[in-house]
Amino acid sequence: MTEDLEQDAVNFDTEQTPMITTSDVLEYLFCPRFTYYMNCLKIPQNEQLRYLVLKGREIHQNRAKENRDYLRKKIACIKKEINIYLASPRIRVRGVVDEVLTLADGTMAPLDYKYTKYREYLFRTHKYQSVIYAMLIQETYQKPVVRGYICYLRDGALLKEIVYKPQDFAYISEVIDEIFRIIQKGCYPAKTKFPNRCIDCCYKNICV
Questions:
Q1: Residue 10: CA count within 13 A, CB half-sphere
Q2: Is residue 135 within 8 Å of 169, Cβ to Cβ?
Q3: Using one digit for the tens of pLDDT, what is the confidence trace for 100-155?
Q4: Is 202 helix (H, G, I), strand (E, B) or coil?
Q5: Which of 132, 142, 74 is nearest to 108 (CA)?
Q6: Cβ distance 144 to 138 under 8 Å?
Q7: Which residue from 42, 99, 109, 169 lies 20 to 30 Å from 78 (Cα-Cα)?
Q8: How far apart are CA 122 and CA 155, in angstroms?
Q9: How far, CA to CA in Å, does 33 sit from each of 21, 22, 43, 45, 204?
Q10: Residue 16, Cα to own-chain centre: how many angstroms?
């Protein structure tokens, strides 16, 4: 498998290379069984009930029209690229980054917008989504990515910085390996360790 992926990286072809999306990774982090129900049993989510997800998408679509240059000046951003599609056969992930920033110190960083409030702590999914984007940016641009940013739109466009650690990248690589193992072998994974997530889960009626 590794040799195949290395060959794919040489012959870069996002249409032929098996890749998952950043959303696939976030759904696994919410509960590993999302991966099984969606990819092995092909049961879609009922996203009409997921108001915040849909509202977030609407905000993202409108965001490109807004001027948020004051945020970028606070972090010494010298260049920004909006809604950038990135895909890496080596990492096996593809996704669209809200903004790819070039910083004055020569590093690059992802900026992601969230239609929610900051809760005095960083949501695990927010952090690791940023880590995935960092991996994709580093792979694509061949520039160091040591920090990322999240803008909380329902909190006055509050900007929070994430400083990445080597173990963050290692953890996400392990998660991606596990997602591919579930999909390719049809393994039925253990459910999340947090039962409160099951209360409004779209798969709660079939999950045993």
A1: 5
A2: yes
A3: 999 999 999 999 998 888 887 888 899 999 999 999 999 999 999 999 999 988 87
A4: coil
A5: 142
A6: yes
A7: 169
A8: 14
A9: 16, 16, 11, 12, 11
A10: 21
State the amino acid at position 114 in one-letter form. K
Q: Give CA–CA dist 129/110, Å, rounded.
A: 10
Q: What are the backbone angles phi and psi of residue 142, rounded to the nearest 5°?
A: 55, 40
- Whole-structure pTM value: 0.82
- Radius of gyration of the chain, Cα coordinates, nearest whole angstrom: 18
Alpha helices in 64-206 (DSSP H): 69-74, 124-141, 166-185
Q: How many C-beta atoms surround the C-beta of residue 72 within 10 A? A: 18
Which of 83, 74, 146, 155 has its CA nearest to residue 114? 155
Residue the block writes with tokens 């096996």: 92
Burial letters for 188-206: b for 16+ Cβ neighbours within 10 Å, e otherwise? ebebbeeeeeeeebbbeee
Structure tokens that stand for 141 in this block: 């641009």
pLDDT tens string 144-162:
999 999 998 887 888 999 9
State the amino acid at position 82 in one-letter form: I
Task: Check the CA dihedral 135-137-142-147 and report its sign.
Answer: negative
Task: Match 């690059």 to its residue by tokens.
Answer: 108
Residue type, 176: I
